[in-house]
Every structure is written in structure tokens, then in C-alpha cells.
């Protein structure tokens, strides 16, 4: 009983301290206060540069506003117009095609390369450096390089295609090949970044597991299937979330290589928003498209986080 | 307790953000102007960053500041591609320039937004707008007029397009150099361009004719004269775009035929002047600005200039006209506007510098070395005389506050037509998009 009473007392004391929270004079409260003070700049940064624009975007989406004139309240009219705008619907579709066309191959190529580079072999660092170069080149420069690469007369890509018997390739000029052209250059550019993340994930797996499995007679394929891949799940899901969001945000290659064309074959959602907002001065309409864009990304992120939670519980 | 405090903090922040986010400027704020008694007038001058123009602008600023000690000019230049967006967003943020460059196609948007001020003729030493207009080449200020007023202090870059061609390529193909005194027809051009295209196997090593196919303003500059030659206008008298009119169908069909004949090929295009200078294209469209760079890029290239082609059944001879001009902000204080117009007067008085150092043709009349301006320009390169003859038939681009949207729609339609899609169905789509754009 005495013990129980003491425990109860301590519990009450702890509860009391917790209730005093950051306002008390305890060491814990002081630490929390400092923590809060240190967190405040980030908190305000997040508020000013993320939350504020978010609310502002939604608010502007309810208006017809040309930047230079007085805003006119429309309610949800911009949203209803968007869903009948064939160019907008095309942009959403194009964004999905691009995003999944890029990220799915990236996941597997990056993982494959990470598995290769996770093992020691002669010249590994040199190869790793070469493979990582595209990641450090600016996307603008990268796009300009590929603009020349795709030239049907002298571009390296076209020359290589001809060397393997593929003739008459007009990557950027043909609506059926313009999007694959964008996907190829983006896979090349994005893979090294995710490869490095996978390598970091692989190195975090304790070697004991592999040693134990080897003693138990597991072959390389079984070790990959039953140790590496399950333990890489969190990293894989992180890569999935980030890569999909990044892919949806794409703008530069389309802006430089095709300006969204031919026709609207590569007019992704971010380009649709940019053109409507800053070229056509339809800020309300562009904001409504941005809100839809955000909701799409949010839905994808929620699905992925649910998957992550499910996998972790599993 | 802790949770409550955190919750309160977060909710307060969100509330504050919501309240502040729900604030839209009623309109672009008005410049407060110079405070009374301020010793100096500070002006912002904004241009795009065409490299040769920067030192010329800087020299003229220095000269103006020396003669106007009470004026301080801040010079800002931005990349050409996004310059217009920068100007507009600067105005939207209340930080608009006092003097700035912009293209003639921006005028309807500027007027609708009340951004630009009508010219003050007294700054140019004349009393009326009519006298001011007489200082310039006839018709050169047409795109800048509204309600009987002129909304520019002059043109910084006055342009038309003519046909620039590789003489040796024509001779090799057994074609006589093109006449200078009359335009060939578009139909003749199609035949010549197809013959000038050179292929190795299925690879085009030289294309007959090229222009920047994905740049919307080029779509307008190339196709609008064609449309007008056929008797069409993009914008009807009622102010609505008409993409399905017969002349537009004819122009698009013509372009599709050019593509089918491999006289043009958007896939081979990299850079207008570089491609031409390096022999990757045999003919291009260009203005006076092309002459100096071409001579530098390939001094050995044998090229010449012909008038802009006309359709065989053209109802009238039409070429294109476009211009960049100096504008003064209507948002600036009267003191600043007065100083700004005087500054623009100086800028437009430097015809020799703009031509010799930048390659920009000026529209303000003058005599240099005892010669009228055009004559002076032409004596620097006799080929220019052909381009200058094309100015006489020039018409400025269509005027609409939806210029960018309509030119994008036009370009997307062109893309699809060049890809082989049915002309009429493409144009019907374009029409639907244009009507939606206008309804906004």
C-alpha cells in the first residue's frame, strides 16, 4: 500500500509538473521554453513562406484578378470552369503520365544501381562520381544539353538511335515522342539522387543479418528478397513520396525544350499554372488550378503515408 | 496546459495568416511620388538585358544625370524571356518602374490597367501630340495610340520581317537570286524552300526555311501578315478572335503543305541566326537586327535579303511591324513623369548609338552625316534597303488584352497542323479555346 501511495504521489507530482508545462520553473520547463524559442524562427519561416501563401492562394482562387486590376469575387466559379477546361484536364493527365513515367523506372533503376554500388569493386568511387554527375548539373543546363541531344540532325541521341537502326526519330517535334523525351532526360537526371538515398538505406542494414542468413544457407537472391528489401521499405516509401512530388512539380525541361508542345503534349500542370498566372494574368484561375494541384499531391502523399504506416505496423 | 498553449499559439498564427491572406490589393497601388522639398527625383528605368544595349543605356543615363543633377536614375534590366512578367509583377507590387521598355503588343493590357501615361510633347520641344507624332516615321506610333493620345515617348526598336537567304544555296540548287524590287509569292517560296532542303539518307542536314516555331510571338509575326494578305484579321470588328475564317484555314493549310514538302521542319530548329550562319538552314525571316550578328557569326557566308513573300491571290501587300518602345508610368508622380519624358527625349535622340552599338532601328526622324536616317542605315549595308522597303507595307500585330493567350492558342494550333492533324478540326479547337479566353 505504501509503495502504491508513493507511486501515486510521484504520478501526481509528475502530472502537476506536466500541467505546469513550459510556464514552470523546473529544468524541464526551461528546456521546453528554450526549445520553443529555438523553434520559433522555423515556425515563422514556415508560416510566412508556406502557410501564408497557401491561404492566400486559396483566397485568390475565389476571385477574378489580373494582378493590375481590382479583384472581382467569383466564389467557386474558377473551380467549376477548371473542370470543363480541356487544357486543364489535359495538363493533369500529362502531369500524371510524366510523373509515373519518370518515377517508376527511377525507383527500380536507382535501387539496382544502389545494390551494385553497395558492394566493393575496383573503381567504385570513380563510377559512383560519374553516375552522380547529372544530379549536380542545374536542370536548366541539363535541359539545354538534351535540347541539342534530341536534334534529329546532329543530336547524340538521334545519332545513337540511327546507329541501332532507329531512323526518322523526331523526339521533340512528334506529339507521341515528346513526352517520352522528357521522361528519358528526367530519369537520367533524377536517378542518381535516389540511388544515393538507397545506398544510405542499404548501409544502415546491420551486416549481422546477412551473416546469419548466410550461415543458414540463404543464397544472394534470398538475402535480397528476405532481408534487404523488407528492411529498405521505409527508405523506399520515402523515395516514393519525394520522387512523385518532385515529378509533379516539373517545369523547366518543358519550358526550355518544348514550351509545352507540340500542341499541348508536354504542357504539365505547373506550366498551365505559370502561363495562366504570369502570362495571361489570370491569377484567380491559376490559383484555383494550384489548389487542385495541391490536393492531388496531398492525396498521393496521404496514400503513401498510409502505406508507410501499414508497412511499419506490418 | 502545454497542449493548450501550443494549440493557442498555432491557432493564433493560423488565424493571423488567414486574416492577412484574405487581403487582395484593390488595384495596383499608386506611386506616392517625391516628397515635397526632396532635393532629388529618383527614377527606376527598366529594360530587358540585350547585352549591347546595356552600356548604351548606361551612357545615356550618365549624360542625363549630368545635365539634370536633381535626377537619380536606377537602371534595372531583366532577362528578355521574362521581362514583361517582371514589369507587370513590379507594378502589381507597387514597385513599378518610372520608365520602361515594352513591346507594342502590351499596350492594350497597359491601357486597361492604367499603367502608362500619355506623352508630354513639351519634353520633346513641341506643343501638341500631332507635332510629336510628326517627329517619327509615318505610322510608326500607330500601335501606341488610344483615344486620340499617344502613349509612348518613342520606339527603341522598330522592326519588320523580310526574307533572308543563302545565295550560294540557291545557286547550287539552280535557282536565281531572288528579286529585291518585288516579293516572290508564298507558293514560289514553298517550292524554293523544298528544293533547298538537303538530306543525307533520311537525315535533314539543311532545312529550306526556318523560324522559331515554338515562340508564340513569332507565330503571330509570321502568320498574321499571311492572314491579312488573304483578307483576314484574327480579331473581328466585334473584338472576337476568329480562328475558323477561310483565310486562316488557307494559311494553316499552306503551312501544313510546307511541312509535308519538308520545306520546314520544327525538329531541326535550334537557333535562328546560328542555324543560318552555319548552313543548317537556307532561308530565315529576320529584321534589321539580324544583319550585324550574321556578319559576325560567319563573315564568309554569301547571303542576301528579299522582300517578305506575298500570296499569289493576296488582296493587298502586307508585311509585319512590331516595336519595342519607351513608356512612362502613369503611377509616377507628375515631377517624375516630367523628368521621365525628358529622359525619353534624350534616349530617342541617340539614333546613331542605338544603330551602331546595338543594331536597333529607330523611328525618330533625324539626319546623320547629312543623310536621312534610313539612308544612313542603308549605307552601312546595302542589303538593308530591301528590309526598309518592307516597312511601308507593315501592319502592327493584333491588339487584345488577351494577346499572350491568343498567341499561345495560335502556336498550339500551328504545332498540331504541322504534326499532320486535320486543319479544320484543329482550328475549331483553337476557336473554342479562344472564345473561352475572351469570356474570362
Automatic annotation (TrEMBL), chain B:
It comes from the Bacteria. SUPFAM superfamilies: Periplasmic binding protein-like II (SSF53850). InterPro entries: Bact_solute-bd_prot1, SBP. The keyword Cytoplasm does not apply. It holds the Pfam family SBP_bac_1. Residues 1-28 form the signal peptide. The keyword Transferase does not apply. Keywords: Signal. PANTHER family: ARABINOSE-BINDING PROTEIN-RELATED, DIACETYLCHITOBIOSE BINDING PROTEIN DASA. This is Extracellular solute-binding protein.
